[in-house]
Amino acid sequence: MSIERASERAPERAPERAPERAPERASIEKALLRLTAARADRRPCPPVRDLLPRGDVDAAYAVQSAWVADRIEAGRRVVGRKIGLTNPAVRAQLGVDQPDFGVLLDDMICTADAPIDATRTLQPKIEAEIAFVLASDLDGGVTGPAEVAAATASIVAALEIVDSRIAGWDIDIVDTIADNASSGLFVLGDHPRELGDLDLAGVSMTLRRGGEVVSTGSGAACLGDPLAAVAWLAATARDHGRPLRAGDIVLSGALGPMVPVAPGDGFTAEISGLGEVSAAFAGGSS
Known about the structure:
By secondary structure, this protein is of the alpha+beta class. Helix content is 26%, strand content 26%. It is globular.
């Protein structure tokens, strides 16, 4: 399946909101309102972990699902998923100890030939990744790297512009999950290819801002292998009742440390075996 077809799937129904106890439902609504207001007002907010049960990732995913449902009701389409916090360097940067996932919507897609408006984000950072486009569903009881490889239509170099609605990126795992895994925008490269026999764990990545190298990494830094990262996502998303489907774009996780973005910056990532992908940011106030 092509990248173009992946972004043209039939509209997805809003995810069902699981029944919650009244106190938990109230906490979820408060967290959702805080994050929604931060987006609308373009003003980062305090962490939401003080509103939710301590360490409760299920409650955090409920906040995320409620936000996605609101976006779908407003006319947006789900085009895939992103995996966050797969890279130990990124987990160390943020002080978080486990991966998570978020939802990709059609209005998050950017192209390399158009400068990205900095006002679309609050506190952007950028990281280089390998994106997968799925040819078939990944909803089986056992999903490992072999099953992911068999379900993959193509892979392509990608840049993810991560963003946090939480002031100063002061997040723990509950904050980032509730905030749609700190998702922002993403750019896909122009040269998708079949997986074939490419060793994704062995690829190298170099990210440059202008001519300066600002981040390096490898496929092995992404949960040991990007295929293993997508297998983790498939199992976790299935367990949350939101399995991966044919046509999904999956951002498999950072290959190296994330880098802050400023208006006017231009970035190019080179991933061995996959080529280059670029993103440029418009100047002006962010």
